[in-house]
Structure formats: C-alpha cells, structure tokens
Request: fold
Amino acid sequence: MRGWWLLALAGCGTVDVFDPDHAPVVELVQASTGEVFVGAHTWKAQVSDPDDDPDQVLVVFDLSTDGETFLPIEPGVGCADFADAEGRAQCTLVMAEAHSLLRVRALDIRGYEGRVELPLTVGEDVGPVLTVGVPDALAYPGVPFELTGEVSDPDDDVADLTLTWWTDLGQEPSGQVFPAADGALAWDVVLPDEGTVDVHVRATDPLGHSRQVTVPVYVGPENRPPGCTWDAAPPEAWPVGAPLTVSLWAVDEREAGDGLWVQALSDVEGLLAEGPAPGQWFEATLEDLSAADHALTLRVEDPAGGLCELQADVHIGAPPTVSLLAPTDGVSLTQGEGLTVQWTVDDPDGDAADLDLTLSSSTQGSLWTGDGLTGSVMLTSLQTGGHVLTLSVRDPRGLSASDDVTVTVTAP
Reply:
C-alpha cells in the first residue's frame, strides 16, 4: 500500500542513497533556466524507475531560501504526490524573491531516491509591451477593416500571451488576436455605423499582467464604388507572342490612386497582372498571351470592396504572311512600260481567300485591291520617279502584314 510515503516524508524507513541500478530518475521538464517571476509558477517533472512502475514513485517538490534548509511542504510552497502512469508529475508553487533553490526528489517504495536541484532567480514580471497603429485610412460601415500592431514580452513567449479586442459599442471582448511568431499583429474589425469608434486592445501574460491600448477608427459614410475608363483599350486582334499594353484611368471620391487595386484578367488564363493605380492611372504590359479568343477584364477595387470593371474581347492569333516575289528590289523601268508585281500570301488561322490585299505606292497611293486568291497584278500607270511599292494583307480578325520593294520609273 502507499502509506509508506508518510514515513518517507518524515525521513523514516528510507535508504536515502543514490544507486544508478535502483534509484528513480527525475528530470525537470521545460526548465533550462531557473529565472522565473514572482507569483504562481507550475513546475513539471518526468520520472522513471528501473524496478517499479512510474506511478509507484513519490515525487516531492520543495523550496529553499538559503540553499541548505527547505521549507515545509504545504500548498504554494511544496508538493508531494505520486507520478502518473506515464511518469509525469507537476506542482504549482507561489514563487517569491527569497526563494533560491528548487529541489525535486523521486522516492520509490524501497527507499531509493533520485533528485534534481535547480538554482533560482526570482524577479518581478514587467508584463507585455503592446502597440497598435492609428489607422490613416477610412473604414466603412459593415466592411472588414484591418488593424495592425506589435506585441512583445521580455518575460514570456508571445505565443503565451492572450490578446483580446472590443469597442465602445459593447463591453464584452469582440474577438481574439493571434500574434505572429515575431509579435506582429494584424486582424480585421467590422464596425456597423458611421462615426468615430474607439477600439480597445489588451495583452495579458500567463501571470495576469496586462497592457491595454485604445485607437480611434473613423467610419465614414457608405462607400461609393470607383469609376474607371479606358486610356489605351486593347484592339480587337493582336498577334500571338507580341506584348500587349493596356491602361486605364480610375477615380474614387475618397481614395488616392495608391488606395485602389487593379487586376488584369483573362477568361482563358486568369490573372495576368495586378498593382496599384498611382495618380489614378494604371498600365500593364501583357506578355505571352496564348492564341485564343480572350475576354479581357480590368477590375478596379477600392479598400471597401467597391468595384469598377472594363471589358474587351481580343483575338490573339498568328497574323497572315506575305512575300513579294517580283519585281526585284531596286528595279528600273521606263514610264508606260508594264510592271508585273507577283506575291504569295498565307493565313495560319484561316483561309487565304478571306484575306484583303492592298497594293500601294509611296507617291501615288492605292494602286490595286483584291483578295488572297490573286497572286499577281500588272501595273502600267506608274508615274516617273521613285516608288516604294507596298503589298499589305489583312485577315478578317484585323491582323495584318506587309512587304515592299523599291522601283524607279524614268521618262521615255
């Protein structure tokens, strides 16, 4: 039976020796240093016994003020109880600055003892340090608004702190804030009505010491969404592989451009580009658009979630090709003499018969128009002088290409 522990505490019937083959082994858990703070502190120990089950081992926690004599075991000053089946034991002691040594003993039924001692330095807990920034932006009724700040504690890990927030609109905490590992704070508050509302934040450490700060948040009238208009709208068609630049103007009665966020989206490829609109202007160069019919959207969003969208349909495809075969570049002829212009054309995305062709002169303008089924034309009315002959081809989507040669016409 366990009645033997009364004798052990009284110092009777125990061998009081350390024998590595028989004595229990005791270790303090999570106590690499003896630096603790005034107030309640829970000490934890782990024990094992080579001869008995752990729950047959009595674990005694006691304190000393001079490093030699130990205080009587009583609530808040010492503990004596058996470990659990896993060998775990713990004791909550009320620490004072006078305490200089913690002793933990493990006693088995045969009187063998294992022990560990930890020198103590007990000081005052200074509590957490808390800062929350005063918002420089406007909140809107019913719209999540982010507050940010920082918390630290020279005595505790920030993960052990409890942070709550509430407003003048209610006395009970409205929510809990969870700091990042570096103590950074960021959380959303939702305020229902227009006006100035004080948001209170409190950080509390495990010993109950706390710090509280209050920040005013101005909630403006109901938000009106921004407006937007094209500055450089995309064309109906664009050659695949060529960068496409689009831009817009965005206006908002409450936000400067940096407060607006713009996204360029495609129904084929999703998000293409995003960023702020400094000076209420936004430009994006879209690269590597795939060959397809794209519905492009430029979406402007303000901090309250108000939206403005511009949309355009753009065909991204391969442009037609054209090559002048005759005449040779730099050829000369006499006025009135016929000149044969010959070419080949192709449309990777369609039928060459659907191509529109235009032959023009740099000095006389348009000379001939036709379709892709034609492969040559005879010119007999070129005026004297130098000409740059250009054959332009355009597909039904609006994509185009051209080729040119230089000819000289002399007087007869």
Notes: Residues 4-123 form a domain with the Immunoglobulin-like fold (CATH 2.60.40.10). The helical segments are 4-10.
